[in-house]
Amino acid sequence: MTGVYDVAVVGAGPAGSTVAKVSVKHGFSTVVFERRTTVGIPVQCGELLPTPSEAHNLFPKSKRMPREVHVPTKFVTNRTRTIRLISPNGASYDFSFEANIIDRTGFDQYLTHLAMDAGADFHLQSFVKTRTRNNELVIKSNQSTKKTRARIVVGADGSRSIVGRSLGPQFMNSESDLSPSLQYVMSGVDTDTSVVEMYFGGKIAPGGYAWCIPKGDGVANIGFGMRRNMVHDEKPLRSYLNHFAFKTLASSLKNAKIESRVGAIIPVGGPLKRTWTNNVLLVGDAAGHVMASNGGGLPTALCGGKIAGHTIVNHLKMDTPLSEYEKQWKFEFGYELDTAFRVLKVADSVMPSDMTTDICMRLAGVRFLEPLIRCRLPLSVDLASKTLVRILNQVI
Length: 396
Ligand SMILES: Cc1cc2nc3c(=O)[nH]c(=O)nc-3n(C[C@H](O)[C@H](O)[C@H](O)COP(=O)(O)OP(=O)(O)OC[C@H]3O[C@@H](n4cnc5c(N)ncnc54)[C@H](O)[C@@H]3O)c2cc1C
Hints:
The chain contains ten helices and 15 strands. By secondary structure, it is an alpha/beta fold. It is globular, with a radius of gyration of 21 Å. β8 (136-141) and β9 form a beta hairpin.
């Protein structure tokens, strides 16, 4: 046993480092276990973070959100002003959306250093294998296995959280809601650096979308996320990305070169119904805190991490119940996460083919498409899907 801590955090992503910073700053011994060799590498992210004012528009009830998405300028590689949605037949719909495109590796390492400088212990190359009921963690590190125990364990270990699994199925993202994603970082890309493009269609990204996110200096993140249950063939994932990069984007990428490749999972099943027990909290992707309709999880990882940190501090100081965490994140961003999940379900039902997707996007127009991307339904959920289905039945 390496020791007993007040708080043990599994995962040094943005959610985990944020929790650790808060708990250690309030005087509680805190340890973070991270399986990677270097924090933030490889980057598994499109690196788009809404600006503070855009985050306020996205999560209007949250007072914390604009503060939490603030990124020091040195980690901002580009600033985009427009999101362009492109339907399968190539029609485009633009709306204004301000985002910082960030150096995610640098930003993750910065968050880690804030926690380390405040006194948190970080252990890299430390894979947490299991968690027992009394919060004992078994950690595999290099060739050895060690154990530690903590009063509170935080599962900040991503979409397939080991900590969540140790608590049972209701604390896990369902496998069918995990969206496989692939991305190339490419140089020599010739696109408008103020525009983020999102492409829809069954050939491009069944049940999801593909993106081109300009990082500046001719570099862009070119990627896609899809849903397995929307796929009717056995094509390898890479062939979708290659089709998108080298056919759909052929003119912009004719001189481009692949610098690196990443593959990862985005949980798009909406937030977990339960994210706490009497000695565990789940945060970030581990809690399903991702906007299911656009795959963004960075703002909620940062904000949820802050809420979790303060809840733990109040619990350890004053015995405030850990259930406060769930109350607070639901207040700050629960409605938007639920709505984003409903938007995804509506999209599934009214966009079964490229033809209906084209028609729906044309009928909806920017006025209706923009709120969908912003996690808002322009009409009530039922009304929205029924109206679209009725219109489709008339048109087809
Ligand atoms: C391809 C792709 C593109 C994306 N693009 C965007 C975007 O542009 N904007 C946006 O807002 N969101 C985006 N997201 C989502 C965003 O990256 C995540 O929501 C965000 O990283 C969640 O932060 P987190 O701290 O919860 O988890 P993570 O960042 O995934 O961190 C989890 C950490 O836990 C570690 N870990 C896991 N298991 C263990 C274990 N057993 N033991 C020890 N350590 C462990 C991992 O190594 C990792 O470092 C994207 C996701 C993907 C996959």
